[in-house]
Amino acid sequence: MNMYRVIAIIRKEFIHILRDPRSLGMAIAMPILLIFLFGSSLSLDVDHVPLVVWDQNGTHESREFIGRFTASRYFDLNGHVTSYAEIEEAIDKREAILALVIPREFSRKLESGRKADVQLIADGSDANTATIAIGYAQMVADGYTSSLLLKAADQQGAKRVKIPVEVQPRVWFNQNMLAKNYIIPGLIAVIMMVISALLTSLTIAREWENGTMEQLITTPLTPSELIVGKLTPYFAIGMLDVVLAVLMGQYLFEVPLRGNTALVFGMAALFLPGALTMGMLISIMTRSQLLASQLAMVLTFLPSFLLSGFMYSIANMPIVIQGLTYLVPSRFFIVILKNIYLKGAGFAIILTEAGILLLFAVVLIVVANIKLKKRLV
Amino acid sequence: MDAIKAIGLTQKFGDNTAVKNLTINIKEGEVFGLVGPDGAGKTTVMRLLAGLIAPTAGDAWVYGCHTVEDSGQLSNHISYMPQRFGLYMDLTVQENIDFYADLYNVPRQIRKEKTAELLAFSNMIPFRDRLARNLSGGMKQKLALACALIHTPKVLLLDEPTNGVDPLSRRDFWRILYKLLEEKVTIFVSTAYLDEAERCGRIGLLHRGELILFGTPDEVKTHMSGVLIEIRCAEPRQILADLRTKLTLVSAGLFGAKIHLVLSGEPNQILEMVKNTLKEMGVQAEAEIVGPSLEDVFISMIRPIEGSDASV
């Protein structure tokens, strides 16, 4: 590899980029926009579940029970109703996801020591949210039950009753279980995969379409010089995008970065060459700018979103699909970023994933080299 | 040494044979012109010689390098200028030249002198900082040539370099080419312009992938099959149409206001016959035997193969 020729390509590519402000603007604005949009809309947290109540009992006890719900941050009381028709209407209008019906004999049954049933109606059209909301309701009801039991035992003069087993949950790395804390690091990985492949998907195809490739082939330029020369400027843009993304995570979404910031950039530097080469390989194979950019979009966006563990847990996927996820480089970058961001992990912890990223880059560059033959047909 | 040597060079694209069994020797320091109608296979020949495609059969050597096996070496000796402008439109004249100088590792000092010389010679110094996109067609071609010459190639392959270029730029272009001959550069140029073919040391006529004529322009002209008779008259179009029905012609065509007829036979008898025919038709016309131009030769060569409508 001749460094002068590599530098010649780098210089030429930089000129192309700088003289095309629209593309450069896209390369910088697009990740910002995507991270902003996905970061603010993609929330997997379920809280402030809208709730309506039909209190047929209307006693001190029933109000205390309802108070348990309204005191929790998981529920927003959206009003009282007095019929099933009104409950139906509230759920239809999406004013409620849950409806709590307290029967007339609620307080009487409690006083006589019998089991008091309450009815919980959930909107199953969003099964995920409904399941979580029912779980919350169960928790609130359990809390109320145990406090009643304790009170009853007290009144009967029993010795201090203890609840035999009590779980004391303590969530590590993300105490408040805020979704954004793990969404944003994953999002950076996904977006960088898509952007990188898009950036380079045009480069080789453009040379073919403009007829400059035909001339380049007849010069002493080798495929590896062309590939390295073309990767370098886009690597610089990619790193700039990573810096912007990390800054957005820090200051816009206030996601804590517990690990070493330099390690984040180091890992990005390991991830980008593979991702960029993927776009270039698509460009080499298609020789058409339009086709290449569309393919790059589809081939990076879908796997990065669906198969990387970003949206859906890999452990829950069918075994064949699980195997496929090993071919998605963003999968490993997501693990690395989450580890650094949330756990403050050092290099030793993410060594395996880093090695895989390096392997991806090397394999892709070698394949691109082979595919970029110095021949017309 | 032969600068370019091809033996049995054949290129097939599917069922279509673009180049058929081409055998050719070009001496060092020669200007060779490859002439032929559109679709004759000129570009394929150029690409084969530049090592851009590997031939289906046969071999070619350019400056001693086999076009397939030594393609790495080959690239140091040749410059290939494709028919489609192969430069970067968003780079300036100077940047385009610098880019190719870098690719060929031309040393700084030589590069400076060479750039100045090339720009001066092609009258492009005032346009040094202009984007290639904003150059006229002729200037683009001159810039492409300057880029191709920055590393002083041994063999220059030019694919229809003056296609669509104005006459003034064409003259500049050929001036540069002639100057290269002093430096013993071998030039292999394809062209559809026959006046340019006349400027070449030797020419070859390519037709349907086959080289059907080869030699110096004068040698080629002796291959005229038949006698060429030029007729000057009023209303040449009508008279030509009538002559076609009355005489057995090898080929015929209009050259401005003149009619060119090609007939086979003994020259003087033929001339008499044509004159008599014209007299019978009651046409006032002058007819004489003329030496053929390359165009006449090529048309007379191609017409019998192809039928009637070939154009060169």
From TrEMBL, chain A:
One of its GO terms (molecular function) is ABC-type transporter activity. The chain crosses the membrane at residues 21-44, 182-205, 234-253, 265-284, 296-321, 341-367. Keywords: Cell membrane, Membrane, Transmembrane, Transmembrane helix, Transport. The keyword Glycoprotein does not apply. Its main location: membrane. Residues 134-375 form the ABC transmembrane type-2 domain. Pfam families: ABC2_membrane_3 (PF12698). GO terms for cellular component: plasma membrane. Belongs to the ABC-2 integral membrane protein family. PANTHER family: MEMBRANE COMPONENT OF ABC TRANSPORTER YHHJ-RELATED (PTHR30294), MULTIDRUG ABC TRANSPORTER PERMEASE YBHS-RELATED (PTHR30294:SF29). This is Putative multidrug ABC transporter permease YbhS.
Automatic annotation (TrEMBL), chain B:
InterPro entries: AAA+_ATPase (IPR003593), ABC_transporter-like_ATP-bd (IPR003439), ABC_transporter-like_CS (IPR017871), P-loop_NTPase (IPR027417). GO terms for molecular function: ATP binding; ATP hydrolysis activity. Keywords: ATP-binding, Nucleotide-binding. Residues 4-233 form the ABC transporter domain. Coiled coil: none annotated. This is Putative multidrug ABC transporter ATP-binding protein YbhF.
